[in-house]
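Q: My labmate handed me this sequence with no annotations at all. I'd like to see what the chain might look like in three dimensions before we decide whether it's worth expressing. Could you predict it?
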Amino acid sequence: MEIDISTEIIFQTARSGGKGGQNVNKVETMVEGRWLVDASSLITDQQKELIKQNLSNRITADGFLLIKSQSERTQLGNKESVINKMNEVVSKALIPKKKRIASKMPRAIKEKILQDKKQKSSVKEGRKKLRKGDY
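A: Here is what I predict for the chain of 135 residues:
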């Protein structure tokens, strides 16, 4: 399920490290995208809860989903990268996780376990000392 949240993302720019030469200290190419999950009109309340649970490590104390990008040389490239990353992260968070179905132990294995227990029990029974009433 693809949801495009690009209309609700708030962008901030800053100077980024890395490639860029002399421009790196002058141009703000790093882009930080913030999306307020609770205020979104694009998703339902149930979906908001799912996102909060699955992306709790990326959501700030204020309730913003925070994603940064500084891999591109241009601000526009980083902005597109933030939009793509955020849409991808939100879409993945909305996919429900499958519940694990416990496998059943086969009857033959249960019987083998019981046989092993009986054998071990008889071995230990044979180690006991005999008393007057036993023979």
